[in-house]
Fold this sequence. Notes:
Layout: H1 32-36, H2 53-63, H3 69-76, E1 90-93, H4 96-109, E2 115-118, E3 120-123, H5 125-134, E4 140-143, E5 148-151, E6 165-170, E7 177-180, E8 185-187, E9 191-197, E10 200-207, E11 210-212, E12 215-217, E13 229-233, H6 241-246, E14 255-260, H7 269-279
Amino acid sequence: GGLQVVLCGDFFQLPPVTRSGEPDSHFIYYSRAWKNMNLRVCYLHEQHRQKDPAFLQVLNEIRGKRVSEETLAHLRSRYKKEPEKSIQPTKLYTHNIDVDSVNDVELEKLPGISREFHMGERGKEFLVETLKKTCLAPATLRLKKGAHVMFVKNNYEAGYVNGTLGTVVDCGGQAPIVETALGKRISAEPIEWQIAEEGKVLAEIIQVPLRLAWAITVHKSQGMSLDAVEVDLSKSFEKGMGYVALSRVRSLAGLKLLGMNDMALEVNPEVLQFDRSLLE
């Protein structure tokens, strides 16, 4: 009691996932706690991921459910167009099966035997499982020299953030060595994800903060900033999915679009209405 907290988030991202056998999930504003908190609303307007005015217009129009012909023209201009960045783009897919297939195939193409890095864990079992569900690093990470990878945690001191892309140049030691798009070499030392209370660690998992990055799901890309993205939105099945995928990339020049369906540029009408109440 007595702690002042800041809650931050974006309801235009994908809705909470309902897992099999669990009650239906809802946005936080349905909860009694939310209604009783008497929140003071602050609305953030300054963009840090995207600086491209044309691309910002595209994203703002999708959020506002007012997609113009100009925005559609911008997106069409990136249809099957290679990103202007020299780095290999990450492929975003709507389904896990596509992601796993691409990453497994690409890893097998590389010469040599893969090396496995296993996740360590300690603490209360149900809390450890909670950490595993939210951690983007896999329990068993398979790597080879030449593998296309992505950092999945922020570590500004070490020189990477969630979404930093690179190539494994050595994985023979305790930690893989990754060369980023800017030519910087980083030792991807194992790092902790923790649940703590009053300074006491209740649960902890430890893993190399990497995942294979030839492909990733739109869901798992949330919160990431990517320089180059190849995305196929023709299988979009959730409102907000296209917005999340497109808003991961820093500029239109870094986008390669393979397809869209009618759902791709839709946003949740309930969220749109709630967003207006927050603005008011």
